[in-house]
Design goal:
412 residues, mainly beta, 6-stranded mixed β-sheet, 5-stranded mixed β-sheet, binds ligand MTE, binds molybdenum atom
């Protein structure tokens, strides 16, 4: 199988907007040039907060101060997303060279019975370890397709991944500090600094309601795929809440507060990670009090093989595959169409490795003859909700776009 010679020109409708923005394109070329002479991964000085050493050179850079980097769909084909391919979404300046022997996690807040502080060694020795695959997806993944456009990182489809995480249950740690009866929410604080450099300001401090915090899959982790967390993905400690906007999965974690009200940290209010409580017309102005916090993410899927632009010989069946996920729920059906949604064909769909892990789907497609085709993919969840074919629910910050993923295929 080969790729189209001029994919970017031939398939305007499938273009990746962020990649083609002049700023993004120049940066990517400069880095690619560096990468090609020194090896497959991005370069940088170890532990520089502006360094993304170890990341795959095929990732798409949306911003470098701070780093916001996404993964093209075909690079997400792995069953378990590798460290070098997991997207980066930074709101501030990550800590440089954290001394892990001195790193501590404090649990407190008005609804904690007592304040407790743990070293990493204590966390690892006091509580049972759990290893799980959990899907994290940025609430703004897919933002680039909204019209009128929404400000923020212009994610296409790649702010998602499903690595295997190892750590302790958040529940066990919260219970060790003691949870008062009036607890309703938890909030996190990380050791990254605000972009202004002001030490009084947090770059982000979000959280989840108690029922999500106490789930068996809600983890405080120090390892990803059996190794230390990558520097840009929260080393040495982070939260992971599978299926919820990944902004809840606090990185460089140093403090958790148990709250008697909805956590009011940085990026909990205003338009951040919130959508209109009632649907609004595209371009509407929405008052802050009419915005609701995003919880479980909607059902979604990706085609990870083949890469868009594949060229296939006539008469040859094409094996197609990808992943599907559905927030707090399970994906129950997966279908593909090669005729722009006129007809659909059911795919094979695997069970998740554990709750809140993405699910592998596969199918084999036969094309009726030569020409241009698109493969469209549509996942449905256990509640009967499916992915829409068009960009759903315009909202001021461009969250929750779960429109069907499409790739172009040419039969010759
Ligand atoms: N401390 C801290 N935690 C954070 C962030 C951050 O900027 N600082 N970004 C959040 C957002 S918006 C997302 S989408 C995820 C991204 O996780 P990743 O960079 O490991 O992919 O981290 C979340 N946790
Ligand atoms: Mo995010």
């Amino acid at each position: 199988m080969e790729n189209f010679p001029h994919t970017e020109d031939s398939f305007k409708e499938l273009r990746i907007r962020g990649f083609l923005s002049r700023r993004g394109f120049l940066k990517k070329s400069a880095l690619a040039a560096l990468g090609s002479s020194f090896g497959p991964s991005f370069l940088g000085a170890a532990n520089d907060p502006y360094d993304i050493i170890g990341k795959h050179s095929g990732l798409t850079i949306l911003n470098d101060r701070p780093w916001n980097v996404e993964t093209p769909a075909h690079l997400l084909d792995e069953e378990i997303t590798s460290a070098e391919r997991l997207f980066i979404r930074n709101n501030g300046i990550p800590p440089s060279r954290p001394d892990v022997t001195k790193w501590t996690l404090t649990v407190g807040g008005e609804s904690a019975v007592r304040e407790k502080t743990f070293s990493l060694a204590e966390l690892k020795s006091k509580f049972p370890h759990h290893t799980m695959r959990l899907t994290i997806e940025c609430g703004g993944n897919g933002r680039s397709e909204f019209n009128p456009p929404a400000s923020g990182n212009q994610w296409t489809t790649g702010a998602v991944g499903c690595p295997e995480w190892t750590g302790v249950r958040l529940r066990d740690v919260l219970e060790n500090a003691g949870i008062k009866d009036d607890a309703v929410y938890i909030g996190y604080y990380g050791e990254d600094r605000h972009l202004s450099g002001d030490p009084e300001k947090n770059s982000i401090s979000r959280g989840v309601p108690m029922n999500k915090a106490l789930e068996a899959e809600s983890l405080i982790v120090w390892a990803m795929n059996g190794k230390d967390l990558p520097a840009m993905n929260g080393y040495p400690l982070r939260l992971v809440f599978g299926g919820w906007p990944a902004s809840t999965s606090g990185k460089w974690l140093s403090k958790i507060v148990i709250r008697n009200k909805i956590h009011d940290g940085q990026k909990m209010g205003g338009k951040s990670y919130r959508v209109p409580c009632e649907p609004v017309a595209p371009g509407s102005k929405v008052a802050e009090e009419d915005m609701c916090i995003i919880e479980s993410m909607p059902v979604k899927s990706l085609i990870t093989y083949p890469q868009t632009g594949a060229v296939i010989g006539e008469g040859r069946p094409l094996a197609v595959r990808g992943h599907a996920w559905a927030g707090d729920f399970e994906v129950s059906a997966m279908d593909t169409s090669i005729d722009f949604g006129a007809t659909w064909q059911a795919c094979q769909l695997a069970s998740p490795a554990n709750r809140l892990a993405w699910q592998r789907w596969r199918t084999t497609l036969d094309f009726p003859g030569k020409g241009y085709y698109e493969v469209w993919a549509r996942a449905s969840d256990s509640r009967g909700k499916s992915q829409p074919m068009v960009v759903p629910g315009w909202n001021p910050k461009g969250y929750l776009n779960n429109a069907s993923h499409r790739i172009a295929v040419k039969i010759v």
